[in-house]
Every structure is written in C-alpha cells, then in structure tokens.
From TrEMBL:
Protein name as it appears in the record: Glutaminase
Keyword entries, A-Z: Acetylation, Hydrolase
Entry superkingdom: Bacteria
Family named by the database record: Belongs to the glutaminase family.
Molecular function GO labels: glutaminase activity
Length: 301
C-alpha cells in the first residue's frame, strides 16, 4: 500500500473525533479548534508526505522536550542521569508527587520536573536554552518553526504549578540557574510553533541513529537508542504502557495536541489533534498513530 493511501485511510478512521478536551492550562491554546487534524511522515530518504492539516503550525509544547534532551545528551552523555532518572511515572506530567521524596531528582526527562532540569542543564551548556532548541528545530527541518511569544507570555502568566515544581527542585539543589530563568526558557521552548511536516523532518536524527540532516552526528548510536527507549517508557507520561500497547513506537506528546513517533531506520511520524485525553495526550493523534502502525506493521515489536 502506498504511504499516501495509508494516510488517507488513517484520516478516514480518525474522522472527526468527538472525545477529548482542548487544554485549558494555557488560555491561548484553549481557543484552538478541537476538530483540526493532521499527520505527516518524514522518511530517512527525505520523502515527506502528509494528510489533513499537516502543514498548519501548532504549539509543540512538550514535544520540544525531545529536542532539549537530545542537545543535553549530545553534550553530557551519561552524566545527565545523575540529575534525572529514567523511570516511567504513574502521576500526571505536571505532578509534584515523588519529587520531594526523591530529593529533587525527577522521575524522567519528559515529565515537567525532568524537563525543567534538562532546560537548566542546557542553559549551562549553551547559555540560552530556548534559542538552542529553536535553532536545532530550524536547522533540522530546513526552516519554519518559530517561538509564539503570545503563547509563551500566556503560559508564563499561568505558571504556578511549574513554578512550584522548579522551586522544589531548586530547594533540593538540583537547579543551577535562577528559577525564573529556567522557567522562561522552558516555557519559551514549549511555545515553539511548528507543523507536523516540520516536526517530523526535524526529528529524523532519531530514526537515523543520531545523524543530522547535514550528515554530521548529533548523538551516538547508543545514546539515540537509549533516548528512543526513554520515549517509549516515559514519552506519553502515565499512559506510556497503553500507548506502547496500541501504537508500539517511541513517542512524545504535548498538550498542544501533537505526538511525534519514531520508526527507527524508517522515519518519523507526527500527528496533531488538539483534543486531549485525561493523561494530556491527543485522542486523534493516538488513534491516528495506532491505525498507521496497524496498517503498516511498522511498530518496533
Ligand atoms: N508547557 C506545558 C507545561 O509545562 C507543557 C506540558 C505538556 O505539553 N504536556 O505544562
């Protein structure tokens, strides 16, 4: 079956999803039409195909955590894992539970607590975490992604929970920059807007064993495998078990409704639908990805 036909069948299966709720955490995102849907596949050979609203920019939110983590792993390697663990969490992505008992060492790099530590480390490496994540997205996608400053400002104005998480980590000595700086850079890279096609293309290094668009190496093959393993176990938060069961791919979700999924050796999928389930994962994107892997058999299992 041709990829375009697979995507057409996925679109028909997803239809107009009527379950799920658009995030209310960030007012600027609460206004997005819940019926938007798009999906793109970027192949390791350069082929990019899409369906629906795959060329419309949306707020990447936590999908940006893949790129911040990749930059830190590229620099620090194993040393990062003294500051953040690699265990799935049974709590929501923005939970404060476990942090205090775990001495401010977050459960994994994809829950908000862990991503704040990663952003703090990226600030230490490059001096400007938000710009570094955007630069990686721009070079790997070939252009297009941008920071939506209205979304960033809106989240900053409603950031009590992330602020509490960051202060608790700082109290345990696991933040090395001022809490306000870490929050501003974290919120800034979450507020990057990109299309499904751009995001899928930008993440191709994860399907190519760590090799960037220009042929240079970003990550070692081993670190790429391990990043993908962490995505499988932690990338969709406390629903990672169900996601692995139904989709079978390493993936990262965001409350903007995007989900990026890695098919090692083949390519990257990115699906977008703004309405979320109770775990904060897109209902339409999850259904689209599970339909895609059911048709193609391209899960990692
Ligand atoms: N910026 C959002 C937050 O920090 C990202 C959460 C998400 O996409 N799951 O809560």
């Amino acid at each position: 079956m041709e990829l375009n036909d697979v995507l057409a069948e996925v679109r028909a299966t997803v239809g107009t999803v009527t379950t799920g709720v658009v995030t209310s955490a960030i007012p600027a995102l609460a206004r997005v039409d819940p019926h938007r849907f798009g999906m793109a596949f970027a192949g390791v050979d350069g082929e990019v195909v899409g369906v629906g609203d795959w060329d419309e920019a949306f707020s990447v939110q936590s999908v940006s955590k893949v790129f911040s983590l990749a930059l830190v792993l590229a620099h620090d390697g194993e040393a990062l894992w003294t500051r953040v663990r690699r265990q799935p969490s049974v709590h929501r992505f923005n939970s404060l539970s476990e942090l205090d008992g775990d001495c401010g060492i977050p459960r994994n790099p994809f829950v908000n607590a862990g991503a704040l530590v990663v952003t703090d480390r990226l600030l230490g490496i490059t001096g400007h975490a938000k710009e570094s994540v955007l630069a990686l997205l721009l070079t790997e996608s070939g252009g297009g992604p941008y920071v939506d400053h209205a979304v960033a400002a809106d989240e900053q104005a409603h950031n009590h929970r992330n602020s509490a998480i960051a202060h608790l980590i700082a109290d345990h000595g696991n933040l090395h920059h001022p809490v306000e700086d870490v929050l501003a850079h974290y919120t800034g890279h979450c507020a990057i807007a990109a299309t499904c096609g751009q995001l899928a293309t930008a993440a191709l290094f994860l399907a190519r064993g760590g090799i960037r668009a220009n042929g240079e190496r970003l990550l070692s093959a081993a670190d790429t495998t391990r990043l993908n393993a962490t995505l499988l176990t932690c990338g969709t938060y406390d629903a990672a078990g169900d996601f692995a069961y139904s989709v079978g791919l390493p993936a990262k979700s965001g409350i903007g409704g995007g989900i990026l999924a890695v098919i090692p050796g083949r390519g990257i999928l990115c699906a977008w639908g703004p309405a979320l389930d109770t775990h904060g994962n897109s209902v339409a994107a999850t259904l689209a990805l599970s339909t895609f892997t059911s048709i193609t058999g391209w899960s990692i299992f």
